[in-house]
Write a structure and sequence with these properties.
By secondary structure, the chain is mainly beta. It has one domain. It contains one helix and seven strands, in the order βββαββββ. It has a seven-stranded mixed beta sheet, covered by helices on one side. A hairpin with a 5-residue loop joins strand 2 and strand 3. The longest helix has 10 residues. The protein is globular. The termini are far apart.
Length: 90
C-alpha cells in the first residue's frame, strides 16, 4: 500500500522531530486516515509501506530518520528535504 501524507500535527516544536501524527490518503482508492508518528515509522520500516508528499506534479518519498525516537522526513535526490514541514497542520 502507498499513501500521500496530506497534513501534519506538531507537538512541542516546529522541526521534523515534533511531527506527532499525520493525515494521509491512500494512493489507490482515496481512503483517508490518521496515524501517529510511531505507527507510520513502523509501517514504513517494518511493513513495506510507502509514503509520499505531493510536490507540484510529482511526489517525494518519505523516509525514516534513525534517531531516538525515529521520525519522518522527505528524501529526494539523495538528500533529506523539508516537504513535510510545508504541509498544512491540524
Amino acid at each position: 500500500m502507498s499513501v500521500y501524507i496530506t497534513a501534519r500535527h506538531m507537538v512541542g516544536g516546529t522541526d521534523h522531530e515534533h511531527i506527532a501524527s499525520v493525515k494521509w490518503e491512500n494512493v489507490d482508492n482515496s481512503n483517508t486516515g490518521e496515524s501517529t508518528r510511531a505507527t507510520m515509522v513502523d509501517w514504513i520500516k517494518n511493513k513495506g509501506g510507502k509514503a509520499y508528499v505531493k510536490d507540484g506534479g510529482g511526489k517525494v518519498g518519505v523516509g525514516v530518520v534513525e534517531a531516538t525516537p525515529p521520525y519522518l522526513r522527505t528524501h529526494a535526490d539523495g538528500k533529506w528535504t523539508n516537504n513535510l514541514l510545508a504541509l498544512p497542520t491540524f
